[in-house]
Design a protein that fits this description.
Layout lengths: L1 H24 L13 H13 L7 E5 L1 H4 L4 H4 L5 E5 L5 H6 L1 H4 L7 E5 L2 H5 L4 H18 L4 E5 L11 H17 L3 E4 L26 H11 L6
Parallel strand pairs: 1-2, 1-3, 3-4, 4-5
Helix pairs in contact: 8-9
Length: 230
């Protein structure tokens, strides 16, 4: 009787180990990342263009949610032909992927890009993101060789505070690349969200501690204004 009980206990333990092993080796079901997740956003811009086509040769802003949520863009620069084509929580490579649809049709003379934070957040290395940026530049140059590209740098956000050093590293690589490459400019806003003591200025963000509020966008506009083409 005792021996049978020991045998049952041993079999139960063996079964439990087998189940655990199966759980460790079970393949992930999460779908791979694809730019097509933003298809609805891009299609919405195209539908808007069919109703009222923007003029060509203006100043185009694109990138992730910092641009997408910049609702006061036209009011901040009322004397310039600015166009907002930010979308989703996009990455640098997404702007490259959709360039044929959200950049080239407008033939802008100047392009502002703010992206890279989401790339770092999902685990892409700084080197990978920098490579993606250079590919973005090459893609734009192939179609719009005379357009100036301005990179709006990353800035620390309280919600992603632990990523600030990688953001700063990416900023530095793009800044140096911009100095060495004709037609590229670098707009530094890294310190904009920091106190003199190096702490986060939480008063510049909405409740999610990631996106700018009206005060944050006011400061962003001040940093961007000197770079706008006349």
């Amino acid at each position: 009787m005792c021996r049978n009980r020991q045998l049952i206990v041993a079999m139960v333990a063996l079964f439990a180990c087998a189940v655990a092993a199966m759980g460790q080796t079970r393949p992930t079901t999460r779908a791979p990342y694809t730019p097509l997740r933003w298809e609805k956003d891009i299609a919405a811009y195209e539908a808007k263009d069919r109703e009222h086509a923007p003029g060509k040769g203006g100043i185009l802003f694109t990138g992730a949610s910092t641009i997408r949520m910049w609702k006061s863009l036209e009011q901040d620069f009322p004397d310039r032909p600015v166009l907002n084509r930010g979308f989703g929580g996009s990455m640098v490579a997404d702007a490259t992927f959709f360039a044929e649809r959200i950049i080239f049709p407008y033939e802008p003379k100047q392009i502002f890009l703010r992206a890279g934070g989401n790339d770092i957040h999902i685990g892409r290395s700084v080197d990978q993101v920098f490579k993606d940026y250079k590919e973005f530049v090459a893609t734009v140059r192939a179609k719009l060789p005379d357009a100036q590209i301005v990179y709006i740098s990353m800035s620390p956000a309280p919600a992603r505070w632990e990523e600030r050093d990688k953001n700063k590293q990416l900023n530095g690589m793009i800044e140096e690349y911009s100095k060495q490459t004709p037609g590229l400019k670098y707009c530094d806003v890294y310190d904009m969200t920091l106190t003199p003591q190096g702490e986060a200025r939480e008063e510049l963000f909405i409740a999610d501690k990631l996106h700018f509020n009206a005060d944050g966008y006011k400061l962003l506009a001040e940093r961007v204004r000197p770079f706008l083409a006349k």
